Structures are given as C-alpha cells and as structure tokens.
Amino acid sequence: MQEFQRRNFHVSRHPVASLILRRIGLALVTLLAVSVVVFALVQALPSDAAEALLGQNATPQAVAHLRQELGLNEPVVARYFAWLARLLSGDLGRSLANGLPVSDLLRDRLANTLFLFLVSATASLPLALLLGLACATWRGSLFDRVCNIVAASLISSPQFLVAYLLIYLLSVSWGLFPSSADIRPGMATQDKFYVAFLPAVTLCVIVVAYMLRMTRAAILDVLGNDYIRMAILKGVKQRRVVVHHALPNAIAPIAIVVALLLAYLIVGVVIVETVFVYPGLGQLLVDAVGKRDIVVVQAVSMIFATAFITFNTLADIVSIICNPRLLYPRA
Amino acid sequence: MAVVALICLVSLFAPLLAPYAEAQVVGGSFEPWSATFWLGTDSIGRDMLSRMLYGGRNTLAVTLSATVLACILGCTLGLVTALAGGLTDLLTARLVDVIMALPQLILALLALTVFGTSTASLIAIIAVLDATRYYRIVRASAGNIVALDFIEAARLRGEGYVWIASSEVLPNIAGPLLAEVGARFSFIFLFVSSLSFLGLGIQPPLADWGGMARDSAALLAFGDITPLVPAGAIALLSISMNFIVDWLIDAQTGASS
User: Fold this and answer.
1) Among the partner residues A158, A266, A288, nearest to B234 by beta-carbon distance
2) Do A164 and B103 touch (CB under 8 A)?
3) pLDDT band at B68 (very low <50, low <70, confident <90, very high)
4) Are residues A186 and A245 in the same domain?
5) pTM of the model
6) How many domains does chain A have?
C-alpha cells in the first residue's frame, strides 16, 4: 500500500517525465529485441550458415574461414553478445562479397541517403500537412474529392510506376532532369540537388499521398469532438476555436503522422534508389540481398530499423508532451 | 470488380491466350510494337504480350498462396493464444510486437538473404510476416468473445479447443476478417511486385509484372512507354482490389448500423 502511494505520488508529480522515460525504455527494449531477431535469422539457416552462404562447391578452407569470420565456432549466446558489442562500437564486420569493411561501404552511401531523405522530408512535410488541412477544411468539396481519389490511386500503385511516369514526363519528354542519379563524392551541392531531384519528387509524391489522408482524418477527428461544437455554439471566434481548442489536441495525431511519414520515407528509399540508380543505403541493401551478403544486410537493416523505431518513439514522446491533459497533476 | 474478374480470367487461361510460350525467345532484343509482337519483345527477345499474360498468372498465384497461408497461420495462432492465455499468449504478443515494429520490406529482405529467393521461400516469408496482421485482429476480437458466456458454456459441455475455436469463435469474427483478407491481398500483390522489381521476388525465367517493368526500364529513356504497361497493370489491379475492399467495408458497416 505504502509502495503504491509512493509510486502514485511519483507519477503524479512528474507524469510527463516518467511517461517519456518509460517510452524510451520501451524503444530500447524493442531495439534490443530487433537485434536478437536480426541475429537469430542468420542462425535459423537450415544448414550450416557458412556452407549455405558459400554454396555446394565451396572448398573446405573457404568454409572454415567463413566459420571463423562469422564466429560460428562459439556458442550462440556468446556470439550474439560479441556481435552486439562490435555493432555498438561501430565495427560492422567485413562484406562477404568483396571483403571490404562494411563501415567503409556505408559511409558515402549513408550521407547520400540522408541527403535524399532530408530533401524529400523538408519538401513533403509542409505539403502533406497543408493539403490535409485544406481537405479537412473544405471537406466534401471538389478539391477534397479530387485529392482523395488521386491519393488513393497513388497509394495503390507500385512506387516504380510513379517513378516511371515522372521519368517519362520530366526527363524524357521535357528533358529537364536526368533519369539516373549519378552522385559522386565531392560534387557541388547544387549539382546534387539537380541529380537528386527526380528521386526526391517521387518520394514526395508517394509520401504526401499517404500523409494527406492521415492528416485529413486526424484533423476531422479533432474537429468532430463535442468540445469544439460546444465552443462554436458558445460563440467563440473561429480563429480562437482553431488555435486554442483544436490545435493543442491535433498536435499529437499530427506528430504521429509526421513520424509515420519519415518512417514511410525509409522504406520508400529502397525502391526509389533502385529505380534511379541512386548510390545510397537502399540500393546497397538490395544489392547485398541479391548477393546474399548477410553481413552487409544485417548492418543496413539495423540502421533502417533504428531510424524507424527512433521516429516512432519521437512521435509518441511529442504526443505525450502535447497532451494537455497530462500537464495538470492528477487529482 | 470487372477489372479484377477480367485479369483473373485472363491469368487463368494465359496458356491458351498467349501467342508464344513464357520463356520462348521469338525475336530480336527490344523489338518495337508490331502486328507479330503486339507489345514488342523484352531484353532477350521474348514476346512481351505473352509474358504479360503469364506474369499476371505467376504474381497472382504467389499472392493468393501467400494470402491464404498468412490467413490460416495468423488465425490459428490468434485463436490458439486467445484460448490458451497465459505465458504462450504473452510471448506471442511480444514477438508480434517486435515484428510489427519494423517495416515489412526490411524484414522480408533480411529473410530473403538467409533463405534464398526461391518461390517457396518467397511465399513462406511473406505469409509469416503478414500473419502478424491476422494474428492481431483475431487475437483482439477473439479475446472479447472468449470472455462471453457461450464459450464458457461450451467449455463446461466438455468441447475440445478445436471445436470451440472453429464453431464458436470463428463465425463471430468472420466479418472483419474478410475485409482484411481483401486489403492484405492487394497489399501482398504490390509487395510481391515490388520485390520482383528489385530482382528479389519471382525469379526468371518465370514472368512477372514487377520484373518486366524493371527489365524494360531502359526503353523509357527512348520515349518508349512499354515499361509503363506492366507497371500500369499492377496499379490497375491493385486499385480495383481496393475499391472492392472499400465496398465490402461499406456494405458491412451499412449492415451493422
């Protein structure tokens, strides 16, 4: 009982802080669990990992060497912790395909993918929110319906169709932008923008289609609440209703929309980079899967997974901070 | 509806309709559209039209098997854990949480590296990943139903788990499940096409729309719209599927309200 009261007191004094800490803890546990899954999948190989990866014509020396490389001669749990420790210290192992250290393979590509990611995120975020807001405001209008149909069609289309259509229009018919993104280290920034334009637009179109619908739904959801109708009926000015009543409650759902947008971008990057031959992480991942280069695949998927979980956690944290109900101590 | 039916029929009778065999080299590389080759030929001179017909068939077959397998797997798991409760239930729920905390594409790529890109492992991997969705739905709705009196009555009657699951619980959750199957079918269809586009899905010489869109991509640069045909076909089928699903959901909510 005493313990319960103490904890209750603690929670009521810092409800926001303790909720945030708990959410971060959950994210770390998830990340750890993901690393176990990523590690365990390799162990789940039906036969010996080294033999399976090298194929049937492998020489015994090659198999022995790879076993050493993968650390297959030690017990599973020890291997997992050794792998995790190396991962955390930044040693990602060596590629099975060409023997280069994975961190060297990643460096330039990580920067390229981040560039593409940032450009598309900065362009698509305001666009998605504005369009969603516009659709919610003029609900049922022609604009709303057109937006909805276009967005629904885009969501159901394969991402490479969007990319092909853009290439056909902007690159082939009008000759404005190059259809393959040939990014080299040491390129001037404006040149980078130029070659990354089409991949970035493709990502934007796909992500905005998703997010427009979610933003629209989130805002309509908030505007449909009783307290909004109450405020309107009470004669509060519309501006005040939106700013003081609707917006604080809409920030949380919108934060979730933003995080999902960033998360969708991570997945979209894989296909878009392949279409435009953009030298980033997504393309590296696809190549590595094709070559069954498990070390590279592990490293890249851990990066994607970490980013994905981070964005989701951030969204939850923002929605915790922005929840007006949590700012007051519980009675 | 008509579009889906048409594509399904055409796919079913592909061997009868196609002018050439799936992997038969019949002409030069990348021949333009003509009376002999309605959609031209691909990079090694196979007839595009025939491959379109076979491609739809292959992709649909993989999608259908994966959807059915995922549904069976997810429903069974959801029903068993809902009825069993306890530690099994908790552990399964946590494992599914972890799988769903990651993008499906990343997990699928990881699994494809380990298990290889054969059609069987492709279907199995997608089915296992997608089963998590069915598991969530079934576990949530079955959890509510299991607490109801008629389940307790069935237990007291001494009915077995299998009978309770199939005759008492399943009919009560069939509605939301059906709409989900439709939505997932359309998602898996896109997913398989995307994987094939990346060269990691259905493997050559088997034809498939995603792979064909990739194979002929070079033609775009010369203003040839051939690559848009398989890509557009994927979009067409997927959009029509989604319309059917929306219509199903509307029909259901209309019936219940």
Assistant:
1) A158
2) no
3) very high
4) yes
5) 0.80
6) 2
